[in-house]
Design brief:
- By secondary structure, the chain is α/β, with parallel strands linked by helices.
- It folds into two domains: about 150 residues, 3-Layer(aba) Sandwich (Rossmann fold); about 50 residues, no CATH class.
- It is built from nine helices and seven strands.
- Strands 2-3-1-4-7 form a five-stranded parallel sheet, with helices on both faces.
- Helix 1 packs across helix 9 and helix 2 crosses helix 3.
- Bound molecules: adenosine monophosphate.
- Adenosine monophosphate binds next to helix 2 and helix 3.
């Protein structure tokens, strides 16, 4: 009722910082909501919901989960959100078909797609970032052994849980995820460029600077 929702898409290779940047922005501003398709899927796998059971194998191999499964999940989640807010979509859409599903979801929710932030990072940096990535299995906080170290090694600053390496952050799966990004997700750059929505942001510098540039990209 009277709801005004905006959507900002975070686009970029695995390890380009989508989750880190969208997470920092949302933590600093209650009107911004970080929605990560990877987190929704990992949660569904953990709970072994029907969608989670279907998605698990694709994720282990570093392949994309079928568009209908993730499209339904994002559609349900976004249409269930209340209040005036800006959704920071991290990891969705990843194919042109998903972008079309998102147009449908936005139309039904009365939401407006205002910008697509493309985080640009060189391949060498991506590999180094993913190799050092650690996460908290309990609260979802993200770390990097060198770039974002926790205060005590291997322990989450926020909830004290032991940090883990994501199952799909091994070298073979990462190579596959990068190839999938180049083949299936990169076409979205032209897709949104043609609509005048694309904002390119250098994703290789200091986190605070990237956060600031990302925010300016849609304001
Ligand atoms: P992420 O946390 O964004 O790196 O996603 C982890 C894995 O979840 C990906 O490698 C895919 O298997 C799956 N996934 C996440 N988002 C999507 C999406 N939009 N479409 C298909 N698969 C996805």
């Amino acid at each position: 009722m009277g709801r005004v929702m905006k959507i900002v898409i975070f686009l970029g290779a695995p390890g380009s910082g989508k989750g880190t940047i969208a997470g920092r922005l949302a933590a600093a501003d209650a009107t911004l909501r970080h929605v990560s398709s990877g987190d929704l899927l990992r949660d569904a796998v953990k709970r072994q919901t029907p969608a989670g059971v279907s998605a698990e194998g694709y994720m282990k191999r570093g392949e994309l989960v079928p568009d209908v499964i993730i499209g339904q999940m994002i559609g349900d989640y976004v249409s269930g959100m209340a209040g005036e807010c800006t959704v920071l979509l991290d990891g969705f859409p990843r194919t042109v078909a998903q972008a079309e599903i998102l147009d449908g979801v936005a139309g039904r929710c009365g939401a407006e797609l205002v910008a697509v932030v493309l985080l640009e990072v060189a391949d060498e940096i991506i590999v180094e970032r993913i190799a050092g990535r650690r996460g908290c299995p309990k609260c979802g906080a993200g770390y990097h052994v060198k770039n974002i170290p926790p205060r005590a090694e291997g322990v989450c600053d926020i909830c004290g849980s032991g940090l883990v390496v994501r199952k799909d952050d091994n070298i073979e799966t990462v190579k596959n995820r990068l190839a999938v990004y180049k083949g299936q997700t990169v076409p979205l750059i032209d897709f949104y460029g043609a609509r005048g929505l694309l904002r390119r942001v250098d994703g290789s510098g200091r986190i605070d600077d990237i956060v600031r540039m990302a925010r300016h990209a849609w304001e």
